[in-house]
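A favour, since you know our structure tokens better than I do. Could you add the entry underneath, on a fresh line?
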Amino acid sequence: MSDHESTYVPKTGVEKWLDSRLPIVRFGADYMSLPTPKNLNYWWTFGGILALCLVTQIATGIVLAMHYVPNTELAFASVERIMRDVNSGDLIRYTHANGASMFFVAVYLHMLRGLYYGSYKAPREMIWIVGCVIFFLMIATAFLGYVLPWGQMSYWGAEVITNLIGAIPLIGEPILIWLRGGPAIDNATLNRFFSLHYLLPFVIAGCVVLHLWALHHAGQGNPVGILIPKDREKKDMVPFHPYFTVKDGFAVILFLILFALFVFFMPNALGHADNYIPANPLQTPAHIVPEWYMLPFYAILRAIPDKFGGVVAMFGSIGVLFILPWLDTSKVRSMRYRPTMRTFFIIFVLVGMGLGWCGAQLPDAPVVGSFKTFILIDGDLNSYLWLTRLFTAYYFAFFLIILPVVGLKETPLAIPATISEPVLSGGDAMTAAAAASAEKKG
């Protein structure tokens, strides 16, 4: 794909002048005509959806920043003023707040697709790694933004998370003082968080450019997971436009319907009611929880009894994603042809959802229903904490044990010789060993 020759021909004098100095029109035209595997399914549409989410967050964020006051005495009131007095302020704020949730819905599905179809395998390691950097920056940006309304959950969430940094030996305390701007969360903290929250989306946009650059250099993956040789490009690939622009456009419309459902009919469904109470350092909420998209990592943090150990586990749960390309030992990319690994993957998805659910519960709350029957051994185990630890153990085992071991031991199904041929038990289908040999030669 990196060898794709440009087909763009400037037609007017202005186009020729611009093309000879800044070929931005050529770049767009070449992107539209880029050869793309013709078997891509709707799981490949989330890249475009994520780009839309990023643009939406930046545009609405800039407008909100024009009216927001980063001062502990005025921040909460400024948010309420945006909702009441600024033209369409409630719509802009609800779009921004729910847009963060939609952003994470899309990115989680995008990453799970990459995990299922082996999109992180050579030669696409850098695509995956840059994507993990974007994911980490998204988490940081979302946390900083959650503090800005300066409600009860904003303040106490910042208190809990920043205190975790102080648990790091030697360097934790200096970093904590720098991040807060002093020994406690105050006006300097809010100013720092506002500045970083405004800056990081543009850093994410820069990383997205690197992500696309790496994608164009290494080439687009496909559900079958085989490399497409040069002599098969005409048969196995089609131009990105109009085939996939139409497909992506349809997926974007469906996504926008879901987005609009939250913005117009239940704008506060994904938030916490306590954040509509002004921050009070003297009154701790009954239950401090982050936004839903951070709950799995919050659950992992609480699963470890030691404070520093919990911090290591939480950051390790993200860090392990960066080394994923070297943990998977299978020669076959797509789990479509790895039934054993597919079973473990389904369990992994359920465990991730379970971690999110556990993260929303009180750690010492009693286990009820079927979970009580499943995990209750004696009175000491009657809490969600033990279920969280079980899920946390599987999360890390999936990456560090299951992926390497199953990749060496399993016998994959036969995969087709090309993406244009159906998967059959014989005929044109070839064994996994032959596929691996073909990939090495490719």
About this structure: Strands lie at 35-37, 237-239, 415-416, 429-430. Residues 187-218 form the longest helix (32 residues). The CA atoms of residues 132 and 189 lie 27 Å apart.
